[in-house]
Structure formats: structure tokens, C-alpha cells
């Protein structure tokens, strides 16, 4: 029987698999800039609104989101958290590409990286809405806990692939796209 891959550490699996096949892999917060500067052929990132005109793009999958707090946070004592409960604590918000998430707390800190937000939550600096796969990544799994907040209907987070407009993608790019799509599908099961 084939062992099923753990979708929770999606990024780790993907990078390890990619590194096995291709020796130069770089990760950056502003991956679109690397593509625009032709330092990378393609990039994957969360769909956060319109792209600059210089890119072509393709939707490749979605990720679930949830509310997360530090493992010793007092909100964990509640079975279901209300938005008024969240408002009593600092919210850590994703803010990139001039797009900002919904604000539910009067006290807010911002970052342009979900990974940085996860680390801030783990350090008990506040709560955040995070992609579940990032919060459950090996680095954060023990220090972050998901809380139920039925009054927040969180949308799926769209992931897209982008490349320079008009450029033809090669065999490696198509393999990377298919592999990442498969890992995204497995993470939503």
C-alpha cells in the first residue's frame, strides 16, 4: 500500500521534491518581482487581486483558512469564539500588494508574509487568519491552535501561477505546475 503524503507541510514537500529534480530553488516574499526581473521563470502566490499587466497567470488551486492563536492563548478555553471575543485581542493581518484582509479588532499589526504571521501568532503576539497548511507546517504545528469562530465565513484562498506575459513555459515549468496542483488538491482533502 502506497503511503499517502501528508498535505499539511505542503510547501516543505514541494520544495524537497523540486530540489531533488532541480538544484536551484529560491523562495521570496515578492516572488512576482523575481519573475518580472527575469530572475525566475514562474512564481506561485496567493491571488490577492489584479496583477500588473506584464504577467500571465493561471489558477492552480485553493487552500482553506482558519483562525489561529498561540497554544496557551485564553481563547482556547472557549468552545466557539465570537467576533467580539476576537476583537479583544490584537489581530495580525496579511497586507501585501495594497490588499488588506478584513479587520475584526481595533488593535492590528500587519505583515506581507503568512509565514511571518504564523511566527508572530506562535509568539503570542495576537491571533490571525492563516492558511491551514501554513499553520500546520512542521515549524508551527505545536505552537499554533485553531479556534472555531462560526460567525466568520472564511473563503478559500486562491493560489495562482504567474509568468512573464507572452513567454512560453517549458517542460520543467509544466511539471512544476502539475505537481503543485496535485499537492494543493491533496491538502484540501
UniProtKB/TrEMBL annotation:
Protein origin, superkingdom: Bacteria
Keyword match Translocase: no
Keyword annotations of the record: Transcription, Transcription regulation
Xref: Pfam families: LysR_substrate (PF03466)
Residues of the LysR substrate-binding domain: 15-176
InterPro entries: LysR_subst-bd
Statement: the UniProt record of this protein carries the keyword Transit peptide: no
Residues in the signal sequence: none
Family assignment from sequence similarity: Belongs to the LysR transcriptional regulatory family.
Protein name: LysR substrate-binding domain-containing protein
UniProt organism field: Comamonas resistens
Amino acid at each position: 500500500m502506497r503511503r499517502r503524503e501528508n498535505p499539511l507541510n505542503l510547501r516543505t514537500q514541494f520544495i524537497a521534491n523540486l530540489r531533488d529534480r532541480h538544484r536551484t530553488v529560491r523562495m521570496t516574499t515578492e516572488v512576482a518581482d523575481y519573475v518580472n526581473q527575469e530572475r525566475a521563470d514562474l512564481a506561485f502566490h496567493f491571488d490577492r487581486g489584479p496583477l500588473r499587466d506584464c504577467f500571465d497567470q493561471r489558477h492552480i488551486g485553493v487552500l482553506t483558512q482558519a483562525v489561529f492563536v498561540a497554544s496557551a492563548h485564553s481563547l482556547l478555553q472557549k468552545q466557539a469564539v465570537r467576533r467580539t471575543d476576537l476583537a479583544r485581542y490584537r489581530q495580525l493581518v496579511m497586507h501585501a500588494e495594497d490588499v488588506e484582509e478584513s479587520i475584526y479588532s481595533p488593535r492590528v499589526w500587519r505583515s506581507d508574509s503568512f509565514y511571518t504571521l504564523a511566527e508572530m501568532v506562535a509568539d503570542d503576539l495576537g491571533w490571525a487568519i492563516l492558511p491551514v497548511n501554513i499553520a500546520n507546517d512542521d515549524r508551527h504545528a505545536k505552537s499554533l491552535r485553531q479556534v472555531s469562530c462560526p460567525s466568520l465565513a472564511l473563503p478559500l484562498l486562491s493560489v495562482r501561477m504567474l509568468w512573464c506575459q507572452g513567454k512560453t513555459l517549458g517542460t520543467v515549468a509544466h511539471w512544476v505546475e502539475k505537481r503543485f496542483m496535485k499537492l494543493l488538491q491533496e491538502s484540501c482533502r
